[in-house]
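With this grant's support, we have paired protein sequences with backbone structure tokens. One protein thus recorded is set out beneath this paragraph:

_____
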Amino acid sequence: MKAAMFSGSSVHGPSIREGAHRVGMGTWYLILSVLLLLPLSAGAATAPFSHDVWQTVLEEFVDDEGLVDYQGLAGQREVFDGYIEAIESSSPANRPELFPTPEHSLAYYLNAYNAQVFNGVLARGPERISVWRGAVSGLKFFVRMKVVIGGEKMSLKRLEDELIREKFQDPRIHAALNCASISCPRLRRTAFRAESLQEELEEAMREFVADPRNCRVSPDERKVYLSGIFDFFPKDFLRYEQSQGNPDPRLSDYINRFRGADGQIPRDYKIEYLKYDKGINQQ
């Protein structure tokens, strides 16, 4: 999806809508296209891959609750398309010099996944009900639909399973990836950045398990109600616990790492999974 993009801090100045109004959408797109190519044309091909344009899109079309204005984006998608073109062109696989650390690579894949989900929603008109619609839930969107990452076609499922989950083996990514659904983790209004990625992932998981919609403890029932994400990917969390020396891991052990002392889940509590709301996360 991405090509080498301009580096530096977040984009400042007029918003996408304001910029389009002032100079015209065609001119605005031309300006962004030039900016996206700056690292190559200015001899700075080794500058780390930038996610500034993606952050601009998130700030403009995502609210504080993590809901997306897909309709608005569909009508003004030129800047977003520039980011898609960038990640379609460059990735850690074909342009490793743009990703000097594992954090640069993981930040790229997390942003690329979330951006390609946006792209898939828009391709559906945009989607107004759920990306999971179909005879087999999610098959068309996450498996059959193909996206391009660094010149290579793949499904969203492969991007998640092989390039993110298996390669990095960090369960915190489950609080960072967003599948355009109500029960997904809250979509941040900021792009993931290599320089602060560890803190961002830590914060994302803490927020996720602090939300009663994802983790609710019932002492009276001696139960804990968990997001379906823990049901979909239990091995990721348990494998991490084993890697940390836990010989008999439970999901609560991992979750307790991100909950305060007064929110710890007893190991003997039974687990019940909450219904996963697959409705579209639109404003």
The longest strand covers residues 146-149. Strands lie at 146-149, 152-155, 215-218, 223-226, 270-273. DSSP finds twelve helices and five strands in the chain.
